[in-house]
Structures are given as structure tokens and as C-alpha cells.
Amino acid sequence: MALMQENEFLSLDVEEQEAENQPKRLKTREKRTKLSQRDIFISFVEQNPEVLDNNDAAYAKKWKILASKLNTIEPKKSTSAWIKNLKEWEYSLKSKYNKAKKNSRVATEMSNFEMRALAAFGII
């Protein structure tokens, strides 16, 4: 059922549908997400933890709101691109945290910002 909701959500993304109609081009590297955008993301997750649960009824609506906030700063992305980008960052942080924890170096290898993000994700 979660997969169906996610597919419905992705089909709502007009930007993505328009991109499919464009002629195929060489894949170019996306611009990097700025720290200020990640800060907006973490603040939003702290206030709206349901944005991390794609089984929640408000999931798609919350992501659209979040994407519009993130797009106030360059680079701008579609809602589905933000979901992918920020999920990848979450997994990257989890991996870094687990590696640091295994080596007993969490305090030295993880920044306060990263620890705040991990707390928002419910990892620590």
C-alpha cells in the first residue's frame, strides 16, 4: 500500500511529468544541496515528523510544502528529487554515524549539525 501511495504522489508531480516529455539529454550533475536547505529540512522534520513516514496520510502534502520552502534557495528541484536527495543524505548520515560509533569516535567525527539531523530522523 505504501508503494501505491508513493506512486500516486510521484504522479502528482507536474515538473516530473513535464521532464518525461522532454527529449533525452546527457545526464548532468545536479547542483549540491546547500547547508541552509538542509537546515530548513531538519527544522521541518523536527516540527513535522510525519514527513519521514510515507504511510502517513499527510505525507505528500507535507513534502510539497517542504519542497516549496527548500526551493526558495537555489538549487531548485522537484518534490520527488528532494525526497530522493534528502533520503540519500539520511542514509549517508546513518552510515557515517554507525561507522563512527563502531570506532568509538562519534564525538570527533560527527558535527553538531549532523547529530541534530540524526536526532530529527529518530536515529539517536
Task: Describe this protein with a few key phrases.
globular, single chain, mainly alpha, 124 residues, 65% helix
What integer value in Å does the Rg equal? 16 Å
The computed structural class is mainly alpha
Along the chain, the helix and strand elements come as: HHHHHHH
- Sequence stretches where pLDDT stays below 50 over 5 or more residues: none
Indicate the percent of residues in helices: 55-70%
Count of extended strands: 0
What kind of sheet is the major sheet? none
- Can you count the helices? 7
- N-end to C-end Cα span: 28 Å
**Backbone shape:** globular
Number of domains: 1
Percent of sequence in beta strands = under 5%
Mean pLDDT: 82
Region (Disordered): 1-31
How would you characterize the overall build of this protein?
This protein has one domain (35-121). Helix 3 (35-47) packs parallel to helix 7 (112-120). The mean pLDDT is 82. By secondary structure, it is mostly helical. It contains seven helices and no strands. The chain has helices spanning 2-12, 14-21, 35-47, 59-70, 79-102, 106-109, 112-120.
Brief write-up:
It is built from 7 helices and no strands.
Write the SSE topology.
Layout: H1 2-12, H2 14-21, H3 35-47, H4 59-70, H5 79-102, H6 106-109, H7 112-120
Helix pairs in contact: 3-7
Region (Disordered): 1-31
